[in-house]
Design brief:
By secondary structure, the chain is mostly helical. The protein folds into 3 domains: about 1-65 and about 90-115, no CATH class; about 120-210, no CATH class; about 220-270, no CATH class. It is about 65% helix and about 0% strand. The protein has 13 helices and no strands. It starts with a helix and ends in an 8-residue tail after the last helix. One of its GO terms (molecular function) is protein dimerization activity. This is Putative HAT dimerization domain, ribonuclease H-like domain-containing protein. It comes from Rosa chinensis.
Length: about 280
């Protein structure tokens, strides 16, 4: 429980920060990097620290702080098999390898995989949303950044950005920005105030702030599907099942629909409709 508490407490703190309305990608990346650093450090020292704390709690509760030993099952060796003995582990070592390290490694692997899009976004637009990097960038690194960004946003031979003009815009912008400007949205607002002075930077920052970046996976919400119970459910197609789920989720909007008009429209387009005379 102590191990889970440490992991979930750290993840929960970052999760709350990421869900704030004014969250920006640069801040999100820094928070995720801190969390990943914590997990890597926790992997090295977390087991021993958790073990000490667990022993203290067990002693206070009058419980003997020892690991339960498991019976070792010896497999009967066949004549053709090697006689080498398997390496035995203590109960504490087994718990660390099979439980602690497994959980922490899964968490680290999951974070690295799910947030690759954030890292790619940082590599392509890093200087735009990290103003400290923009202000301290030398001539060569800024030119290289502008060339890569222009090439990235090019469609065939058409591009909304000019490499040289973007370089000059960002170079002048980094010197003209007020000291209190800290975020990419503040830079865009400043460029808007000085309308026409930095046309290529204006385009670049608008693209930067409208790119959707998400780490959400496509998962069906079975909490809603459980509410849709029918004997026909086993024979429903994927399209109909998704439609019923959407109706259940958006029940407020569905309640405002004109069913008479919808039924009439459906009936008029139904090929099986027969007019009796």
């Amino acid at each position: 429980m102590i191990i889970w508490y440490e992991l979930l407490h750290a993840i929960n703190n970052v999760s709350k920060v990421l869900q704030t309305e004014d969250m920006h990608v640069d801040t999100a990346i820094k928070e995720l990097e801190r969390l990943l650093s914590f997990l890597q450090k926790f992997r090295e020292t977390g087991f021993e620290e958790s073990l000490i704390e667990a022993k203290e709690i067990a002693s206070e509760m009058g419980i003997e702080p020892v690991f339960m030993e498991k019976w070792t099952i010896h497999k009967k060796r066949q004549f053709s098999e090697s006689s080498s003995e398997a390496v035995t582990q203590s109960a504490a070592e087994s718990f660390k390898v099979n439980y602690f390290l497994y959980i922490v490694d899964q968490a680290i692997s999951s974070f690295k995989t799910r947030f690759e899009q954030f890292k790619t976004f940082e590599e392509n637009f890093g200087l735009l949303f990290d103003l400290d990097k923009l202000r301290s960038a030398d001539r060569d690194s800024l030119k290289s950044f502008c060339a890569n960004l222009t090439n990235l946003l090019k469609h065939g031979e058409i591009s909304d950005l000019n490499e040289d003009d973007l370089y000059h815009d960002l170079r002048m912008l980094s010197e003209d920005l007020p000291n209190e400007t800290k975020r990419a949205i503040d830079v865009l607002n400043y460029i808007k105030e000085v309308d026409g002075c930095y046309p290529n930077a204006w385009i670049a920052y608008r693209i930067l702030l409208t790119i959707p970046v998400t780490v959400a996976s496509a998962e069906r919400s079975f909490s809603k599907l459980k509410l849709i119970k029918s004997y026909l459910r086993s024979t429903m197609s994927q399209e109909r099942l998704s439609g019923l789920a959407m109706i259940s989720i958006e029940k407020d909007i569905v309640g405002k629909l004109d069913y008479v008009n919808l039924i009439s429209t459906f009936a008029s387009k139904n090929a099986r409709r027969v007019i009796f005379q």
